[in-house]
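Collaborator request, handled under Task 6.
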Amino acid sequence: MPYDLKEIAAISGMPGLYRLVRPTRAGVIIEALNDKGTRSVAAAQNKVSLLQEISIYTQDYDQTVPLSEVFDRIQQQHGADFSLSNKSNDQELVTFMEGIIPDYDRERVYLSDIKKLVQWYNIVSQRLEYQAPATEDEATESEATKKEVAEQAAEEAPATPVAADTSPKKKTVKKTAEPAADEAMSTAGIIPAPEADTAPANPEAAVAKPAKKAPAKKKAE
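Structure tokens returned to the collaborator:
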């Protein structure tokens, strides 16, 4: 983003632009974006409009141009030679707007909006640092430089000795992968009943008793 607008806001009933410092119980502490940088408190009932969330209507009803992009276009076209102000004549302001957004909506964007746009840009361009977006060649060169530095650091890093593993090898038991949450279990959701534990150590295990012998028949006397 050429101009960082995420903390810059226009506040109803207060001229100019302000930087949001921190919220309070009574509202929000603001800092005037001017030479004095005076701090004050904007009451909770004041409408705070972040510039980052403001867009300009175009002739395509569902399409708008973010204010950050509009500011970038102005910077690219006019640079430091921007001489318009909110007091410039109407024709100059309309011509300027047509050059920045040729398809802006003439019915929903009023002359007062154009004046406000010019006023805000003058404040932002004087108080905030403009960061030109990186070109494709610069981005490629930056990535190549990072890769070269990483490779050089890897070559210069000392080799870490690997200690011999003398511990006895354990038999590896392959675990069955657990099913994903949206997959059926192999038992189709039915949990099989556990087998009875008949180990002697289990006090609840059933102990097999020896079968009783049938009573011997008495011989006839």
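The cover message to the collaborator said: "The two ends are 119 Å apart (CA to CA). Strands lie at 8-11, 18-23, 27-32, 39-43, 48-50, 55-57, 64-66. Please let us know whether this matches your experimental observations."
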